[in-house]
Amino acid sequence: MAEMAVNQGSSSGAAGGDVDRRSTPTLIGTDHTAEQPSTTTDDITDKEAAPLPDNSSDDGYETTADQDLAAHPSNVESVWAAETMSLPREVAFVVLVCMAQFATQFAFGGTVNILHIIGASYGITEPGKLSWLVAGYSLTVGTFILFSGRLGDAFGYKKMMLIGYGWFSLWSLVAGLSVYSSYVLHVFARVLQGIGPAICLPNALAILGAAYPPGHRKAMVFSLFGATAPGGSVIGMLVAAAWSYAWWPWAFWCMSIGLAGVAVAAYYVLPAPARKMRLKATSWREVVVELDLPGAVTGILALVLINFAWNQAPITGWKNPAVIATLILGFVFVGVFFYIEMRVAKRPLLPMEAFNGEVGFVLAVVSCGWATFGIWFFYVYQIVQEIRGVEPLLAVAWFCPVAVFGAIAAVLTGYLLGPARFSPAVVMTMALAAFTVGIVVVATMPVRQTYWAQLFVCLIIMPFGMDMSFPAATIILSNAVKKEHQGIAASLVNTVVNYSISLGLGFAGTVEVHVNNGGKTPEDVMKGFRGALYMGVGLSVLGLVLCGAFLVKTHWHDRRKRDQEEGVEGGEKNAQR
């Protein structure tokens, strides 16, 4: 919900100045229509950003602007798209790119708010089945991000964003039309709907990274990108609640119409940065190899199967052979994926050299925190609507503090991560502390307590966990991996955030159905909800413990480095004497 992005960027490398210098002066920001009315920015990219004959690389790709800039360093100052735009066009550009983040959370929050209304139209009331409408969406958002970034590198970030918006629009339309069919079609549409934001998010960040030079202006734009998330979720809740009083499918159809409009506007407004790589493949077999399609397919299958097993188990039970078989098959594909990445792939989707102990620490902490968030968000809504009987429109008013304090948290995090203030590891620990306190507050909340007591407090605290953890994790991973893996580091954080939301709901649902005594009375239902929330408490505490271990490790590493530097300095002084 608050996947705040900072300078480090996306899977295609919004991080760092080296990636941002990809664009050439002929394909950025400027309005080419006056001089070349029949030529689009995509055409210009393909024709004018072509590599020089001697610029081919050993890995089967050809770079463009990077090598051009190396040969002509005087071009560096003229390649930033944002610097060539008029103010109105730059505002439109930033708005259209931020719509990727806004729409992602719009679709998430809007569905959660009318979950029971949607379920009632299909005769579905079990929380385990209803959770699929949220978990299925987050599953595909998290699963497809890595590969979407690779596609953007190969085929162009603008083109992939247009495809993403179009796909998102199409399956939002189908999700609404499923009212004429069945719950199964609606879940299917939600799962495929999630591929849209998975395509848009990494490529949106890549376009921002290619448009702005490093500096305060770029940091503010990335902060805006992150700050749209809480607002998108709350506005999605509001629109869905308003349409629920007429007919809930219109919430999805309005989103479909809006996304189609965004896609059309993006076609005319967004610049088309040069691609990071150019395929030299002459056959489909070479395309498969160069894009690492075997790794992408096995990795996606592994994530989908494991997640499906955990989210289906609360519905059918762990004794169901299909659930066990799916889980085992998922882990088999995990093994196949890592074998392909380590031994087979020429250009791995997930290079193993990008991994180390520090990366593992951070991803584990992020997964604990965001699984906690998914559990918190889903079950707070269950308590508010199912136990307290709050209408969707009033629930929007209750959740408004999330948008306000999410924006505050985004700005505060940018300040805390500034020079000589707090290290990213400390900020990450603060975030996990916020996740832990926020879910403990709601898990221990009396059923009929006033809104202004514990519920209001947790709505203030949780946004700090969301908007502090994402940028801190991105910076830590950026510092932990090599320069060529900067985009992968940021993309991994995006993947873990969204996938953990979905997987966390599966964990919580399993606990819920085992402690609610069948959910035959309101007391038993509430007992199940509390059990699920306490599962979230356990995950957040685990993340906080890992943060503590990471802080200790970082402290000793810095101290050892300082001692070594002092020793070298002392030796040099002695040598001078």
From TrEMBL:
Gene3D superfamilies: MFS general substrate transporter like domains, Multidrug resistance protein D
InterPro entries recorded: MFS, MFS_dom, MFS_trans_sf
Transmembrane segment boundaries: 91-118, 130-149, 161-185, 191-212, 219-244, 250-270, 291-310, 322-340, 361-381, 393-418, 425-445, 451-477, 489-511, 531-552
Domain annotation Major facilitator superfamily (MFS) profile: ranges: 93-555
Protein localization: Membrane
One Gene Ontology cellular component annotation held by this UniProt entry: membrane
Region Disordered, annotated ranges: 1-64
A molecular function (GO) term: transmembrane transporter activity
Keywords attached to this entry: Membrane, Transmembrane, Transmembrane helix
Topology in the lipid bilayer: Multi-pass membrane protein
A Pfam family reported for this protein in Swiss-Prot or TrEMBL: MFS_1
Name assigned to this protein: Major facilitator superfamily transporter
Taxonomic lineage from the root: Eukaryota, Fungi, Dikarya, Ascomycota, Pezizomycotina
